[in-house]
Amino acid sequence: MPRPSDLRRLFGERLQEGVSLARFTSSRTGGKADFLIDVRSADELRETASGLWGLGETFRVLGGGSNVLVADEGVREVVILNRARRARFDQAGMTPRVRAESGAALGGVARRAAARGFSGLEWAATVPGTVGGAVVGNAGAHGAEVARCLETAEILQPPYRTESWPVERFEYGYRTSWLKRNPGAAVVLTATFRLEPSTPEAAQAKVEANVGYRQKTQPPGASWGSMFKNPPGDFAGRLVEAAGMKGAQVGQAEISSRHANFFLNKGGAKASDVARLLIEARRKVREAAGVDLELEIELVGEWPKELREALA
Q1: Fewest beta carbons within 10 Å, which of 13, 78, 189, 229?
Q2: Domain 219-311 grouped into CATH 3.30.300.30
Q3: pTM attached to this predicted model
Q4: 87-213 has which fold?
């Protein structure tokens, strides 16, 4: 458990206590963090993470708050709220690049690249979440993913070691990486993506096409993003719909009637409602299709034992 006196001594007024995480998640759900520290730059993120490791404290970095389901009971470990959002475009040489801090919105970086006439990130314009979360989870859409365009990332490991990792070191797979398989072992500070010369008109046309497709196929409103990973050769949304779960609801949590791999907060949904809906959807798909769906979202916080075991 975090030691409040040590945290207050090291971080002073930067340390916030008893902060609701609901306003920092895309679903607008989740309990309180016992301790939260806001960072505004990659340097602040480095110093804060190193300081916590120096105290022997565990912590979690929270960016855009998508693809995470925060327990109603809250989070005991320290939460670092990552608002390090600077991005710098480099046009030197034949290969343009963008270096973005890990708290930058991936979709925003993609749109800025397109506006400058750079291609390669158009697929990411509709992806929620931050650069850091995308690097950890190998985010993807429209047939592309981080693993195809990431060049290097600046990685911090305990207690103070910073290295530049080439893409191969992440050992990427479908919606996973070495970082995701080893939670707490490292922090993403920045990421550099390779781009390609294009024109603003051509790049923005691709962005608009992707936005249009998303609006037709995915629901608006407060959600967690894709809930389940697609199994090999199939789609999680199709399986959930075929199992008769489209539109199902527990409390104020609902499986979207537009896309069955998206769950919606209809207003005041509890994380436990979402968990029970996930459990039921998995059970129905297993019975109907013999497929065990794997969660794409990550469970965060102090979950009741029975729910965590059922979702494992």
Answers
A1: 13
A2: no
A3: 0.94
A4: 3.30.465
